[in-house]
Design brief:
The protein has 352 residues and is α/β, with parallel strands linked by helices. Helices cover 34% and strands 24% of the residues. The chain contains 10 helices and 17 strands. The relative contact order is 0.16.
């Protein structure tokens, strides 16, 4: 594991206090130790104190301040990356070069379109497996919502709307885009149109220093479905169709459906029962998928192929949002994103 902070090793007290059970284990090291088929052989962090604390807390026999030295000496099969975004693409490439075949990586993937192009080529390989920190699609409430939707009682899916308050593009909205792509079920993206606040150039028209806030973003898909990102508080996903809707509210605390009962003039929201427990949650669910791929499980391989495609597309859409905003909100196709675009995604001097 590389990165021994909040996501790598020590889940924040606020998340532990308020997130529903489906979010846990969330820290990468906790998830590795919760998986019967994995051994945490080493951790790395540029801060020696952080690396040593994480190794002691989670039982790793070795710790490093140089992740490349860790890769060279331990030769892991699976790598968890919980670093800040700068340099993440290079670490992914180094890991694959050292023989790693499965990676769980925090979001977003990279800071430049040039880095993304290299990662797109790398993960075109069928023998490499990728998951990332936008993990809601693996959690029971979100899977239950999609299953409820697929019952057919709501008509054709028209919109997947995600509301996460006033969220920054790179810090928050990989989650939103991953959910939208999950709901779209593989439909081709036509374009994205976005209005952003706080786009701060770094001396070059194609270099943005800040992590802009998303005012609104709309992703259009072939076939007519639309994905929508707004600023309403709540951490909610709403799947809306011709005759009703299904909602996952408050990060998975509640499931609801919007339907019209006999004799009613208007549809009303009604509580859905909570999903059955038992499935792995949090980051453990991502690691279960990755180890399934390494073991040759066909279901895991198929699910990861879909998710790898969506991860790479979500990253491209992050860049497309900036390209659209700089063009006055004009819709931008994924292939139209400028090749030289760089987003530092810094807030208060710290990168996403």
């Amino acid at each position: 594991m590389v990165g021994c902070g909040r996501m790598g090793a020590f889940t924040s007290a606020g998340v532990r206090a308020h997130a529903p059970a489906c979010w846990f284990p969330l820290a990468h090291a906790e998830a590795v130790n919760a998986h019967a088929g994995l051994e945490l052989v080493a951790v790395a962090d540029l801060d020696a104190g952080a690396a040593e604390r994480a190794a002691a807390a989670h039982g790793a026999p070795r710790w490093f301040t140089d992740p490349l030295a860790m890769l060279a000496e331990t030769r892991p099969e699976l790598l968890c990356l919980a670093t800040r975004t700068p340099g993440r693409a290079q670490l992914i490439e180094a890991a694959v070069g050292s023989g790693v075949r499965a990676l769980h990586v925090e979001k977003p993937l990279c800071n430049s379109v040039a880095e993304l192009v290299r990662l797109e080529a790398l993960f075109a390989r069928d023998d490499l497996y990728l998951t990332w920190g936008a993990i809601r699609r693996l959690m029971a409430p979100y899977r239950a919502a999609l299953s409820e939707w697929e019952s057919g009682r709501y008509g054709r899916l028209l919109e997947a709307a995600v509301h996460m308050g006033a969220g920054a593009l790179f810090w928050t909205h990989p989650h939103a885009l991953d959910l939208i792509l999950f709901a779209a079920g593989g439909s081709e993206v036509e374009d994205v149109a976005a209005v952003l606040d706080g786009v701060e150039p770094a001396g070059d028209a194609l270099h943005v220093r800040s992590d802009p806030e998303v005012v609104v973003a709309t992703v259009r898909f072939a076939g007519g479905m639309v994905g929508h990102i707004g600023r309403r508080p709540g951490c909610d996903l709403v799947l809306a169709g011709e005759t009703g809707a299904v909602a996952v509210e408050a990060d998975g605390h509640r499931l609801q459906r919007l339907t019209t009962a006999d004799g009613e003039a208007y549809p009303e929201w009604r509580q859905l029962p909570p999903p059955a427990g038992g499935a792995p949650g949090g980051t453990l669910a991502a690691l279960v998928q990755l180890t399934g791929c390494l073991d040759g499980d066909q279901g895991s391989l198929a699910a990861n192929a879909r998710w790898r495609r969506d991860i790479l597309m979500a990253q491209r859409l992050l860049f497309a949002c900036v390209a659209s905003a700089r063009a006055g909100g004009r819709p931008v196709r994924p292939a139209e994103v400028p090749a030289r675009l760089v987003i530092d995604a810094r807030t208060g001097g710290r990168a996403a």
